[in-house]
Automatic annotation (TrEMBL):
It is an enzyme of class 2 (transferase). GO terms for molecular function: cysteine desulfurase activity. This is Cysteine desulfurase sulfur acceptor subunit CsdE. It holds the Pfam family SufE. Residues 24-145 form the Fe-S metabolism associated domain. It comes from Xenorhabdus littoralis. InterPro entries: Cysteine_desulfurase_CsdE, Fe-S_metab-assoc_dom. Keywords: Transferase. Belongs to the SufE family. The gene is csdE. Coiled coil: none annotated.
Amino acid sequence: MTQLSDTLLAPHPFGTEITKQQLIENFQQCKLWEDRYRQLILLARKLPNLSDALKQQHIEMSGCENRVWLGHQLLSDGRLHFYGDSEGRIVKGLLAILLTAVESKTPEQVSQTPLAELFQQLGLEQQLSGSRINGVKSLINTIQEIARTHIQ
């Protein structure tokens, strides 16, 4: 049940005001894991909290340590708007990274975006716990599945 709309649910700065290139540059300046951790927390603070009305069960991810919501809209011009939230600051920062990479792209573009590579570029993959890596992979799989459902 996807409604075409141009009114964004839960707008955020990721992918528009905050770009993938900016993320890469910010994380490349981080020499220590603690610096990357601080970057994730800063990103989490920039992702607005979802209203309770948007925290619907059908967009809540299962199997995550922290509660995570990931929703989307298909805009009238064929681009996707993703939005989300998490109760955990680090997870919310990781979600913000994913939103930066996929926001306002067509389903075809999203399906071709190498999301896992972005975490390698940012120097995060080797720093995350196994459960967080699995959580990120689950988010990536969900984003890719959403894109596939909208490819005609």
